[in-house]
Predict the 3D structure of the following.
Amino acid sequence: MKKKQNYTRRNFIHASLMTGLGLSLTLHSCSKSVASPDPVTPEPGKEDNKLRITGVNLPMRIDAKKGGELTIEGKGFVAADEIIFEALPHKFTVVSKATTTEQLVLVLPEDMISNSYKVSVKRGAETFLLGTTVLNLYFNTDIPDRAGMTIKGVVYAAGVGLANVVVSDGFEVTTTDENGIYYLPSEKKGKYVFISIPGNYEVATTMNAPQFFQRLTQPAAIVETKEFELKPVDNEKHTVMILGDMHLARRTDDINQFQKGFLPDVNKSIQAYKSAGNKVYALTLGDMTWESYWYSNNYALPQYLAEMNKIEAMVFNTMGNHDNDPKAVGDWESENTYRSILGPTYYSFNLGKIHYVVLDNIEYLNVNDARNYNTKIVENQIEWLKKDLATLTDKSTPIVVAMHAHLHSNPSLNSSGSETTGYRITNADDFVNALKAFPTVHVITGHTHINYNVELATAPNIMEHNTGAVCATWWWTGNIGYAGNHICKDGAPGGYGIWEMQGRELKWKYKAIGEQEDYQFRAYDLNQVHLTKDKYAPAYTGAEWNTYAAEYANPNKNNEVLINVWNYDKGWKVEVTENGTPLTVNRVRMRDPLHIISYSAQRLNRNAVPTEDFVTTLTAHMFKVKASSSTSTLEIRVTGRFGKVYRESMVRPKTLGYQMK
């Protein structure tokens, strides 16, 4: 009796979980025959000339070996009956191996995956629903329990267990043995177990979401078996699309702009890199949604997933401050919705020879419904990070860390023109110290909706790449009736990063949505940049125009040219000549005039206050030159870190306009 009670409890817990994910688990069992009024004896399994199977006993949960036999009890099966297992988008059709008057025996396909299935029998053109069950398919059903270990399993590929694969529950970290077997002493706080996908392997996907984790459904004291099947691939040469700050919320025409602007652009890039022989992946940087509108606009993480599935590559996700549930209080509790829909909030994986780490560096508080937070990597993540990195015996392995909030503040320039910055994350020292053994670390962040790169002498192994937003200025400048362009707060076009990896070599660039890859800077003729209320916000009745027009509120007739190089770092070079004569190029920290007229001026013209977080920011990837004439053509040559040269023959006067390049 005790064993039966445990089985019932297990089914109830599993059914509750699946129901919470929007999946229906019902057990259909027909045990009563329907008499046929026709005196002709019906075929076996048919009554009234309709396909029917009676006395069906299909358990709600079935544990079976992959490729093993499965017996379904029921009366009326005949030889050659086909059994169909459906779990969209998957469908498996299996021909019966043997039948008797009481049951049907079949062999499960080797490629079948664990899932919740609708099970039907098909005979000719007719089908009959037998019921729904959860199939748990195991590669190794003979892993013994071990004292203190609450999760066990195997990681395998092509029928062979894989050694040294990292497995974690977000707190404990272990590796598989020579047979691919692992054990974890988990308290199951996160309710999942995940692997750090090894290089040159991939996992299965649900749509385009990689299934590197499995959910735990039992109490901590009950041992659960979770297996991971990998597929061998060659991803030594791979490309990652870095997608920052999408802020999809069903507002400011965002879905239309996303679908007609960003999606075709990124998919074109993906296909181009695939055609060049790269394995291609995508990695978000958080703020995929906007929690302020989850409930009022009925747009949250499930709706985001529907859009992400249109990206033609596997998508790994990072959590941002706006991806926390605004109806919860406290960091862990606010993350539960994300976990239930997208999975782990921090994890690692490998592509080729590169080790990737995804962190959640937002401590979401939501005190008094204020949606407030700290930019911090909470202690349990730091401890997990140390354990994860400890599994890398080769410390020369390049590390790429993705997290939402920026590690360093937007750089300033001191009086000598040198770059100055500081840490933005409150426990940055803990993070930096955890990575000190690795000479090559790239930290990719979002959150700011601007671009900048930071390399400091105090931590020479770490380079941060703060990446501009897919949504640019929260989709405002391209909103109906606004400027008709797509521009970030630093003047960079809305866009995304493209990282190309070949072995241990890493290269990166910023791709503007709707433009070619070689669009890397914009030049302004400052003689033509005088931002007046009459020209750019004639309907504005307030007195704050000069505050927003800032350094462009007064005319500048000094024959100066401003060059915005949005992905600049210390490895870049900016050169300008006038009639063959080199001009002195000075790095400056200024605002981008095109962004001012594209956002702030548009809001002021409606007598609406520009949102503080959206206004133009000072940026240090600006360069200024002074020409001798107001009409001479300048030759601008910008050389990127990896030797690529970008040019413009700047014919002046050059007019400031919403669609200017």
